[in-house]
Design brief:
- By secondary structure, the protein is an all-alpha fold.
- It has 16 helices and no strands.
- Helix 2 packs across helix 8, helix 7 crosses helix 8 and helix 8 runs antiparallel to helix 9.
- The longest helix has 41 residues.
- It binds heme C.
- The site of heme C has 25 residues, from helix 15.
Length: 454
Amino acid sequence: MDFLDNLVIPATTQHLNLLKVILVLSMLIFLPFFGMIFGGTAFSMIFNAYGRKNKNKLFIRFAKDIIDKLAINRFVGVGLGVIPLLAITFCYAQLMFEVKVISVSLLFVATLFMALAVNFVYSFQNTFQIELLIETFKNITGLDKHELETKIPEDISDYEFDLKNTNSNSGLYGFVLLLLTAIFFAGGTSIALFSDRYQDFQNIAQMFLSGATLLNFLFIVVLSITVTGSAILFFFFSWQGGLYDMDAEYSNFVKKIGGNIAFTGAAILPIFLFLSFIMMPNVSLSGSVFMYTGLAFVSILILCNFLYAVIKNSDMKYIGAAFYLLILSCGFIIMKNQAAFGTASYKHLAEINLKAEELEKEKKGKTVNTAGVNGEEIFTRICSACHKFDVKLVGPPYNQTIPTFNGDVKKLSAWIQNPTKVFPDYPAMPNPGLKPKEADAVAQYLIEKVSGKK
Ligand code: HEC
């Protein structure tokens, strides 16, 4: 996306390192939360639809609790979902400065989808609460079913009807948008690794031809399932003492479903970790990629153990540990991806760095420290005897000569300190005998004056 390229300037080595740290931190916030909101919306939507179809109160309650606990609230959605993804996009835009490939555009589109998704997800969450509110008020009235149907004003029952539609629609839209976010995010980050094949990825449609994108998308799906299952167990049973109003039936139901979701995800995850490792292009492989993949592998296996204990003995003791271990695994996976990206973009980053240094040098050449010396005063006292800006005096007019120095203060100052013969139709200029700082000051004054800055 060209406008993104216009927003960023090449970064120096220190800046690049800082960017990498910001990138890893943003990923560490984004990925687990995305897993929670993506999987949470999906499971909540499924249990909601099934529960409503079969009039199963337990399922509907589960659907409501999942989206309540996992998506938390709108501020969290923006803070842990949209903003980190935006930060990730800008980091990539910086790190892939002037690279002609679709990665950054894909991430940018992913961010837009995410921002839209958040809106639908929280209105989905909201409808459950309003429904519950209406339900509670109905119960308070003490009216029976028939009375309720006849006595409730029409606009309220209309509203209730709309609410049901909003509920199922916004859940679905939110889910589809999150799905798109996942696809574009997977595309942007995987294609960035193929630094030897960037010319193959020039328009968005080409993303779908990339096997790595598809695999990484599936990886995100499986990771989201694992995160969601673990988060259900964690937020229902461990975090701040868990949900307080669960009866035994509901609690067993949640344990069983949450445990199975988490364990299934965690058991499949190593396979995808392995496959995505195999799919990595050679240009991105390095020792640290191997190391982090290994660490992720081990921590996921331990996670499987914990989760197995949970479903086997319905032992909730390890739930906190399992959840934190999962976050740690996410950390290793992210480090692996970033190490791979670092290797793949190594050459390009060196180029950016060179450019940045040149830019810096150029800037330095044009600015000098002239504190305490007045360039204008020197000009009036010494130079104006022989120079004017617009007409020839003893020396040539500045408006003609100064622009040939291209704004380079250092170069002009050097010439003033040691004038050499230039024009055949002028005599040589006597050395005005200025100190370096004075020469700098008058040079800067003349350059600014001629370019119209003063
Ligand atoms: C005694 C007269 C005299 C004074 C004083 C003088 N100049 Fe010059 N200046 C000249 C002449 C003559 C030339 C043409 C030199 C040549 O063609 O070799 C010239 C040329 C220049 C040029 C053109 C150089 C180029 O390469 O195009 C600059 C810039 C310049 N002077 C700056 C200054 C500044 C700044 C001062 C005051 C610190 C100054 N001059 C003082 C006579 C003077």
